[in-house]
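YM 10:42: Multiple sugar transport system permease protein sequence, as discussed on the call
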Amino acid sequence: MTMSVSTPYADVSAAENVTLAVRLSVVVKHVVLIMVLVLFLLPLAWLLLTAFKPYAELFTSPPSVLPINGTLVNFTEGWAIGGGKGIGDSLFVASISTVLCLILGYPAAYALARWFSAHGQLSFTILSLRMMPPIVPVIGFYLLFQELSLFDTYTGLIVVYTFMNLPLVIWLLAEFIRQIPKTYEEAARIDGAPWYRLFWDVLLPLSAPGILTAGILAMIFAWNEFLFALVLTGEKVITLPKALASFFLFQQPNWGQLGAIGIVAIAPLLVLSYYMQRFLIRSFSVGSGGR
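YM 10:58: structure's back
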């Protein structure tokens, strides 16, 4: 009977092979991540470069990657022909609807978190309203707004955006509130704190990351929404997605102006998401016990 004898040299060789495999896997992972990052950032980089190119450079052959004679005229002209109004209307409508979603959604989320099961039908029913395709209710909203004189008004669009994002806000806030131990509320009640002090001093600070996360997502969805704005508004209310679409419908598209207004539209969301990313990560981990 033969027996295999392990030598120190064999152990060292095996350890080196394992270390080499680990290092190779790390290198491959980083290469893949860099490729994916470049894939996503390349359109944004091209949009940014296009925004600073004068009109003549947009059609040169072969195309120039970097602007030869950089200019800011695309920003001023794009703002003047409708981009400025689009940004202003979108900012107003999205901000008001986000605030309304948080004000209306927090009490509903608290009731859902404290008195209903996380895996019950009610939570899924509320979230399923957000999954409904916008094309389903848009015709009903159009006919209703015509009867109520809400067509082409800021009020009508705010109502629609609030209706659209409220289910998601309720569902997200409920998940955050479930992470807050009930003992904190019980201790505050034992100390004699009224309900408004309980809300202001206990619940609101502990659920602040959830409020910020839900607000960011509601703001992004309202800022980017196009179908409701297209069908339910006319010439008085022009959101940014509708204004960008009009660049193609009513004039020969100027790609420099589109790039400039596109960068102005994307930049605030990128900056906001960058500074609030830890709250976004926390929102996606609450279901797995993340804190």
